[in-house]
Amino acid sequence: MLTVNSYSATSATEPLAPARVERRDVGPRDVLIEIKYCGICHSDIHFVRGEWGTAPYPVAPGHEIAGIVAAVGPEVTQYAVGDRVGVGCMVDSCGECSSCRKGEEQYCLKGNTLTYGSTDKDGRITQGGYSTHIVVTEDFVVRIPEGIELDSAAPLLCAGITTYSPLRRWGAGPGKKVAVVGLGGLGHMAVKLAHALGAEVTVLSQSLKKREDGLRLGADHYYATSDPETFEQLAGSFDLIVNTISAKIDLDAYLSLLAVDGTMVNVGAPAEPLAFNVFPLIMSRRSFAGSAIGGIRETQEMLDFCAQHHLGAEIEVISADKINEAYERVLASDVRYRFVIDISTLA
Q1: Secondary structure letter of residue 24 according to DSSP
Q2: pLDDT reported for residue 272
Q3: Is 327:45 a contact under the CB 8 Å cutoff?
Q4: Contact, 16 vs 323, CB < 8 A?
Q5: pTM reported for the whole predicted model
Q6: Is 69 helix (H, G, I), strand (E, B) or coil?
Q7: How far is 326 from 334, CA to CA, in rounded Å?
Q8: Residues 166/267, Cβ–Cβ less than 8 Å
Q9: DSSP class of 344
Q10: pLDDT tens, residue by residue, 221-271
Q11: Helix 185-197 vs helix 159-169: angle between axes, to the nearest 10 degrees?
């Protein structure tokens, strides 16, 4: 059993602190990864602060993991020592249900095993990427192509795939008008990806303070949602709206922006329930949907797409001792656009 350094949460109210976590021995089909970088996702904050239910403390968060293969089991065929790899939001699934057989392990009907805070097959609680090493079965490891730096690749394992999956599912591309609600960790990747897919991209943000960034990242238009005229001007405009906000919004107002047969997809995960009136849906055959990450196959497709189009996350690299400060800055929207932990500072 390998014991490694981590930054872990011990309760919903205490700051994260240095700790040690155990990693299982490398099994026949396991990959040992030396973690180089790990992104900080808003989900990490929700989880460790108990906003999605009581967490199984102590727990090391982190599911945007980029690193180097340090060892492989004797039956591993896909990876070798020295390979550049990543791990996202899940590390296992049943492999047998209809979702898993379709390569959509994120929707495993028996429940997938999350990278942290889940009960693994050995009964232990999974521990995430705020640590120096992780052991993962090879089927849940993805290859990070050359051409993407490991630090800017790390957030692609959550923020990238979380936005890529609905953009692909609902056909973002040439001739389609896509709106992205919020220009944060998820939103900035949605803009980059929708633009690279060939869609006409509009950012809907509370204010215009990030307008210059939005246009630089690939948006064609940028509007402030604090201005009531925005909703009048853009009524019935969009084929697809991707809502990346992890907070309550006026869904009725946003649904009115969809064209006939348009879809609004929620990828942000607010702690509070959302409510809306069904009439904006009924009267224009609109849809309201949700989407979670992507399967392993689609995650690899996304990484290859990003390498082809020279895409990575906009990041601010921090040392491990700045994690608690980074959490507060995320909540204050004071990051452009993803914090990434330099895991060498944990060694």
Answers
A1: -
A2: 79
A3: yes
A4: yes
A5: 0.94
A6: strand
A7: 9
A8: yes
A9: G
A10: 999 999 999 999 999 999 999 999 988 889 999 999 999 999 999 998 777
A11: 40
| HEC secondary structure over 131-196 | ECEEEEEHHHCEECCCCCCHHHHHHHHCHHHHHHHHHHHCCCCCCCEEEEECCCHHHHHHHHHHHH
Left, alpha or beta for 41 (phi > 0: left; psi -120 to 50: alpha)?
A: beta
pLDDT tens column, 7-24: 999 999 999 999 999 999
> Rounded to whole angstroms, what are the CA distances from 120 to 38, 45, 91, 165?
21, 22, 9, 26
Q: Which residue reads 């953009």 in tokens?
A: 167
**Which residue in this structure is represented by tokens 């994690």?**
323
- The per-residue DSSP string of 41-58 comes to -HHHHHHHTTBTB---SS
Q: Rounded CA gap, 133 and 229, in Å?
A: 51
Place of tokens 């923020």: 159
Q: Tell me, what's the pLDDT at 136? A: 97
Task: Give, as one character, the DSSP assignment of residue 105.
Answer: G
Low-confidence ranges of the chain (pLDDT < 50): none
**Tokens representing 91?**
């590390």
How far apart CA 156 and CA 185 sit, in angstroms, is 10
- Burial level of 160, CB count in 10 A (0-12/13-18/19+)? buried
Q: What is the pLDDT of residue 268?
A: 86
Could you please report the per-residue DSSP string of 216-236? HHT-SEEEETTSHHHHHHTTT
Q: Give the CA angle between residues 303, 157, 155 to the nearest 5°.
A: 105
